[in-house]
């Protein structure tokens, strides 16, 4: 085969043999080399990320260990403080035990008094509820009466005007009634 740009990459030399050209071999080796370089670069990036993650985790673990040690020491301190407070409280109870002991009858009396107060509160609440219902009814009735009074007052005013138009003189009872609505709330 002649050297040239149109040379085939693969040519056959018979039925069972394949001959690869030099150009094809160069292309394949360049591709393999580039693939290898890319693979190595990616793996190096992964290794760097792994190292960074490892360092980050180490710092987090160190911080957690110091926190854990602090919490353990605080827990021991709290336990000793609790023991000390318990002993002090027991001493106070022993010193003041006579003053603090209540007999069963005193406790029962206190329970009876509490029950009386509760029942008194319940009866007062019931009475207040009844009074509230009565007040609501009275307020509704008062509002109805107020509306009726205004209507009556308006009707009296219109009657006065009509009577004055018709004959000019008003009965004494109508003259005594004021024209303003101040007295009607």
Low-pLDDT residue intervals, each spanning 5 or more residues: none
Helix proportion: over 70%
Estimate the global geometry from the Cα principal axes. flat
Topology as a string of helices (H) and strands (E): EEHHH
- Percentage beta strand: under 5%
Strand order of the largest sheet: 1-2
Task: Give average pLDDT, whole number.
Answer: 82
Give the count of helical stretches: 3
Structural class by sheet pairing and helices: mainly alpha
Radius of gyration: 54 Å
Task: List strands and helices in order, with pairings.
Elements: E1 10-12, E2 18-20, H1 22-100, H2 104-166, H3 172-176
Antiparallel strand pairs: 1-2
Key phrases:
185 residues; mainly alpha; two-stranded antiparallel sheet; 3 helices
Characterise the protein shown here.
The protein is mostly helical. Helix content is 79%, strand content 3%. A two-stranded antiparallel ribbon has the order 1-2. The chain is flat.
Short description, anyone?
It contains three helices and two strands.
